[in-house]
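#struct-help
A.M.: can someone run this one for me? Single chain, 758 residues.
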Amino acid sequence: MPTTAPVTPTGHELVVVANRLPVDSRTLPDGATEWVTSPGGLVTAMESVMRTVDSGAWVGWAGSPGEAPEPFEADGMSLFPVALSAEDVEKYYEGFSNATLWPLYHDVIVDPEFHRGWWDSYVAANRRFARTAAEVAGAHGTVWVHDYQLQLAPRLIREQRDDLRIGFFNHIPFPSVELFSQLPKRTQILRGLLGADLVGFQRESDTQNFLTSVRKLLGHHVDGQTVHVPGIGSAPGRQVQARTFPISIDSAAVSELTQQEEIIERAAQLRRDLGEPRRIVLGVDRLDYTKGIRHRLKAWGELLDEGIIDPQDTVMIQVATPSRERVDAYRQLRDEVELTVGRINGDHAPIGRPAVSYQHRSFDRRDMTALYMAADVVLVTALRDGMNLVAKEYVASRPDLRGVLVLSEFAGAADELRAAITVNPHDIDALKGAILRALEMAPEDQEEAMTSLRHQVMEHDVQAWAHSFLEQLEQTGSPETRQPPRIRLSGDAVSEPAAVDAALQALVERPRLLIASDFDGVLAPIVADRDAVEPDQRSLAVLRELATLPGVSVALVSGRALADLDQHTSMPSSVVLVGSHGAEVGALPAEMHAEVLDSAALTMTPERRELLDSITLALQRIALAHPGAEVETKPAAAVLHTRNARGRGGANATEEALELAMTLPDVTVTPGKEVVEFSVVHTSKGAAMEALSRACAADAWLYLGDDVTDETVFGRLGEGDVGIKVGGGDTAASLRIAGTDEVRGVLEALLAARRDRA
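D.P.: on it. Structure tokens below:
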């Protein structure tokens, strides 16, 4: 029985990431919450796998909109809930996942809907799942992301934790490139998947569809099952494997249930409840338009209409588990199915017995096993299905070697279960023929077919599937040896003033200090027009005063070009100006060792100048296509600014710029807040801070920054150093303050404390 308990938030060897947790909440009569294992193919498949690792965690949604429960333990697993609001459920889950991706990936059986707001929610939700996974995975651990709802997560996790091995498994089909190309955000989806080291699919055709899409839509080189992913900027390229891993079930556990007297009796009671028919035909599906329920009922109705099947001795049971009932297509499907069942029963059901026993509810595993044991024929006639575990569950439930499986050739299981009667469910006449053949199959033929089927299912169970995937991931993934910057602060909550004061008091006791700050967003509020920026004059004055104190060096480290930074700050030579994320360094005061700052990397050779010119032209073309976007040129870099782009133009221009970055292996590409910088000189703010610290022989340093580019500094915090994040967002900084007004207060407090020490 799952129980709530404290959970260590980090250090897990294997982290499974899926849309849902493997448990559902249930409210007890006394108001307490009980967690029970939930049904479903993924949960059934992974439940036993998670028990085999020393430290396993599962990241997923708990199933109810609103605040997420605290992490808890259930059946030996550490569960980490992810919050989804009601709007997230509507747009991320019911919208983009199930009204856009699901129909597109299932051969457009119904038309997919495309809404840009749904995409925004999909991105935001994937970020949430990825952030949690990155936080709970142990060093050099393994993260296994599951299914179409989280296709962006592999890349988002890698951006935070490139020490991890990352796998992705797609449980549903992957469409042909002709269908996939309809997706407006197709390249973002592919790049998200390629964040994994290993991408797994159910069928070989799905794997080939994915590789073809990568080759045609991204232009990446594909060698067999290996995708060569170029690095962005100076980051190295990677190799991603795409392989086929047909999923299975816990076959032994299902087979063992058939030996229990209670379940044997349930199966017998089912036949008695139906009036001891000679034959029972069973269909078990989620109520989904991909499962072919309407086609199946049409074929059954025609067999009854034609008098080929006698409803007096043959009964059909159709289990249709409720699914996505807030989505219009599913509500319409339910109405159609129930009308069809009603018509068939009205026309053909004998008194006291249905022609079709329709069950629109869920059954637990024990009841399902009893149904399988009672059924003479099971119809798995999906129009398109990634695998379909019902087929394998039925086979595992028949150690008596009786029963017949009718299986759609469009279900992944058809690749493995070759002894089943396969059929094209779109062909109603062929489907009718397959049903009749199954009903008339001789016992010895049933035994021969079921023996073959059971060998496949019992030998290739879920443990073998998981072992195969994880073993391949172990061989494929080659995590970086370096540790990523540790996220010290999440969200937006500011640090206690007392904590900031204590850090400053400890800092000023060091003999030699380096005080450095970003400019935009720290010393000056962010504005739409970069040239109209208005820095806080008091903060600049305090920095000038700090630079006059003994043992104190001061620097401004900005993404702005050096000349631009100088123009807006008018700093004396005692304050070092570092522009273009470290590519440009201004005059140095006499006490700094200039030779420490390596100027060789800053030299603009003719080759670098030619490369920069070509990048500038490419960015200008992107800016022209998205009104409001602008290109800034620097001595060693070109920058795309999207803050003033109209509508969704900013996000789209950024995506195009990142696609350009994938083609430039010798360029440092730095995405920031509504900006992407392409530098032909390999620098960063963090590298510049390290060089400055050495040049002034600082015993400790303070850095204030607000942007993602400042994380290269915060990630280098050493013992005694102080990093202060200005504004919200996850950060490796040790402290957080709200904005530019608070920056002024920090600098004034630092100045006063250092003066008092003197």
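A.M.: thanks! The first helix runs from residue 41 to 50.
D.P.: also worth noting: Confidence is low (pLDDT under 50) at residues 1-9.
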